[in-house]
Amino acid sequence: MRYELYYWTGIQGRGEYVRLALEDAGADYIDVARERGDNVLMPFLRGKREGAWPFAPPFLKAGRMVIAQTAAILAYLGPRLGLVPGGLSAEIYAQQLQQTISDFIVEIHDTHHPIAASQYYEEQRTPARKRAQVFRDERLPKFLDYFEQVLERGNGRQALSRHSYIDLSLFQLVAGLDYAFPNAMRRTQKRIPRLRALAKRIAERPNIAAYLASPRRIPFNEEGIFRHYPELDAR
Amino acid sequence: MRYELYYWTGIQGRGEYVRLALEDAGADYIDVARERGDNVLMPFLRGKREGAWPFAPPFLKAGRMVIAQTAAILAYLGPRLGLVPGGLSAEIYAQQLQQTISDFIVEIHDTHHPIAASQYYEEQRTPARKRAQVFRDERLPKFLDYFEQVLERGNGRQALSRHSYIDLSLFQLVAGLDYAFPNAMRRTQKRIPRLRALAKRIAERPNIAAYLASPRRIPFNEEGIFRHYPELDAR
């Protein structure tokens, strides 16, 4: 099956979690907007196409099915791409973890947009500073500690002991946070040895290494979810 | 199977979406913390119990499995309680919609907590007013229009033409928004006839009507996600 991924062209964004899964598995896919422009997304977002109606990108076209929401797309692709261990409990555990990653992504995004996604960062700088401080002090350690502990416990357990799309998503989280909050992330270094080792291992997987070195990997920038604004990072 | 639902006792919160599904289906379940106190959640949240490690409540114990994240719990329960039409595409469509509902819930919550979930509303009143205005003007109509259109298109389609846990969750959204933002919701009245009819129909289902009239339904209050602060509502 040739999968069709639909996502905005200028940013990694939420589409990147799907892209990493497709790339890692060597799946046959088209990154449709990058070939034909962002306008190809619009008929889907206006409900003019067959299949489920997406609220927002990314969405995946798989045959006649349209699947939106990153965690739902990965729940679908995981078993088909060999990116989740077999069995109901592993699949559901992966879904729960990916949905927790989605929650984390919202909080990362809202550090620079605490008031309105529709307004510029510059219009919400003061609340952004406050939210970013709470994020660095409370939320970042809480989420990272959680995933570190899941990896620690996962080693001896079946559910997520094998490679999965969760590993790819955690790699992306670490890479993005290193870009956006280099100082804050440096301080967490010793708390997250397993996440660090995982991120390194994923970056070295042949298909991922080739992808990261290719023009298909859009560089991080200040239009996406992970933005580097020095005033939002730790000193 | 007797399901065990774990959620904080004082609020409807995210646990309510699971509770509505269990109640509507007449499932055998225990609302564990309401019988034994909030402390029963702690060993799970500290990773001291078997099974998947929840980041936060609600979580469901189903036999030896532990499932967290509202949308993952409902993806699991849906087919088992007859609360999703059969077939892969309907199940995935429901997952995508429930995950979109989860995103909406975060935005509803953040109207009163735009800076820090760990701080009181009173400490973030000024940014809350700004965020709530953007929510009322942009996000509330966008989400409601989307679900209205999904219902409109769903009528003629298989995927969600039958009763499902999505209907129950949409009922809860409408009920909560009516409580939190009565003026803003009154203005949307004409835009969402299908959502209004759905909410009315769900409230009249025998099991739901009995549940809503019972002490098991915790009243809305200013500790939960849907809070009525008049200064955050429209005039």
UniProtKB/TrEMBL annotation, chains A, B:
Gene3D superfamilies named in the record: 1.20.1050.10, Glutaredoxin
PROSITE patterns, per database record: GST_CTER (PS50405), GST_NTER (PS50404)
InterPro entries: Glutathione-S-Trfase_C-like, Glutathione-S-Trfase_C_sf, Glutathione_S-Trfase_N, GST_C, GST_superfamily, Thioredoxin-like_sf
Domain GST N-terminal residue range list: 1-85
Domain GST C-terminal span(s) in chain numbering: 91-232
Protein's recorded name: Glutathione S-transferase
Pfam families the record matches: GST_C_3
